[in-house]
């Protein structure tokens, strides 16, 4: 598992490559926490190269979301495979996140403050 980041249009894009499970999830969580501690607030989690994600991996997405929300940031999910999208749908997580087909789509508009204000419930509207 590998995680790297880049900045695009005010978003910190964290690209995760490999399996996201009990062994690798803590590394992802710590990498994002370090970025938050460095002042980054608005994230796109690029899952395009994730080959496997278990319930612990989903848990780390929730943990990251909580931490980002505590710092009044934003989180979008990008490049999710159809198999991964199905997992997000089955768990109800697809209703709580902005999910984009590509990182380019996710970073097209600049971050808005308070986009996680209604998390874990979708904004009504």
UniProtKB/TrEMBL annotation:
Q: What's a Gene Ontology MF term here?
A: anti-sigma factor antagonist activity
Which keywords does this Swiss-Prot/TrEMBL entry list?
Answer: Membrane, Transmembrane, Transmembrane helix
> Can you tell which superkingdom this protein's organism belongs to?
Bacteria
Q: Which residues form the STAS domain?
A: 1-110
Q: What Gene3D superfamilies does the record tag this protein with?
A: STAS domain
Q: Does the keyword Membrane apply?
A: yes
Q: Which PANTHER family match?
A: ANTI-SIGMA FACTOR ANTAGONIST TM_1081-RELATED, ANTI-SIGMA FACTOR ANTAGONIST TM_1081-RELATED-RELATED
From the Swiss-Prot or TrEMBL record, give the protein name.
Anti-sigma factor antagonist
Task: State the organism of origin.
Answer: Streptomyces monashensis
